[in-house]
């Protein structure tokens, strides 16, 4: 099974969905640890109750972002992950983490629209009729990496940030479980910005 470390900052409902999925041995991925940037992240208690190792690397305990990123990378490395999943992790990851691990991020909007920390609020304020969620590989930018999958959600006339985010989270959980399982079982290829799930197709020289 692929080893997965999940990073969270809050509730951790997407992390919990991954834990549920990984309970099935056929899923292909194991959540080997859950980490957070703050001790108050409720999802840390959820993970503990599920018997999953946890760590907290508090952003405020370090003099600067680089030192925090380095400490976080060391914590993650202890669990030797194949994939790091940022699921509601509200901090920007730097080169100390990104140079060592394959990181995917879950984002509550249809990127490249509405990157950043307030995606649901900004989509509502913009008046879009369709929004959704994106899973992408994390690169040096903020929510700019190659897109792995997206799912749409309609904005209803009476939506507020809370109701819309709740419907987005419902589809996020399904998409995250699907994508992590496929990455783990089938691998992926990346050609410039284009992500393809599954092993590479044989080139012409290998064709019978
Ligand atoms: C999710 O909707 C995720 O897309 C979002 O935080 C929520 C976490 O929910 N992430 C971002 O906004 C990242 N910029 P959860 O803790 O219940 O999984």
TrEMBL record:
Keyword field contains Signal: yes
Residues covered by region (Disordered): 195-208
An annotated Gene Ontology molecular function: phosphoribosylglycinamide formyltransferase activity
GO biological process: 'de novo' IMP biosynthetic process
Tagged with keyword Transferase: yes
CDD domains the record matches: FMT_core_GART
Marked site positions, Raises pKa of active site His: 143
Entry function: Catalyzes the transfer of a formyl group from 10-formyltetrahydrofolate to 5-phospho-ribosyl-glycinamide (GAR), producing 5-phospho-ribosyl-N-formylglycinamide (FGAR) and tetrahydrofolate.
Family membership noted in the UniProt record: Belongs to the GART family.
NCBIfam families documented for this protein: PurN
Name this polypeptide is given: Phosphoribosylglycinamide formyltransferase
Organism: Nocardiopsis gilva YIM 90087
Gene that encodes it: purN
């Amino acid at each position: 099974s692929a080893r997965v470390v999940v990073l969270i900052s809050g509730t951790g409902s997407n992390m919990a969905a991954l834990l549920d999925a990984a309970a099935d041995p056929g899923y292909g991925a194991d959540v080997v640890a859950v980490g957070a940037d703050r001790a108050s992240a409720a999802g840390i208690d959820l993970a503990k109750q599920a018997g999953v190792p946890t760590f907290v690397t508090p952003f405020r305990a370090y003099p600067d972002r680089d030192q925090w990123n380095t400490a976080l990378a060391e914590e993650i490395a202890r669990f030797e992950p194949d994939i790091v999943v940022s699921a509601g992790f509200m901090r920007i990851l730097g080169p100390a983490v990104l140079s060592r691990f394959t990181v995917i991020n879950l984002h509550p909007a249809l990127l490249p629209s509405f990157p950043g920390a307030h995606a649901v609020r900004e989509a509502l304020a913009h008046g879009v009729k369709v929004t959704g969620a994106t899973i992408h590989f994390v690169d040096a930018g903020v929510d700019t990496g190659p897109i792995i999958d997206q799912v749409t959600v309609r904005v209803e006339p009476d939506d507020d940030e809370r109701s819309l985010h709740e419907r987005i989270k419902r589809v996020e959980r399904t998409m995250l479980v699907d994508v992590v399982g496929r990455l783990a079982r089938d691998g992926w290829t990346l050609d410039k910005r284009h992500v393809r799930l599954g092993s590479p197709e044989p080139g012409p020289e290998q064709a019978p």
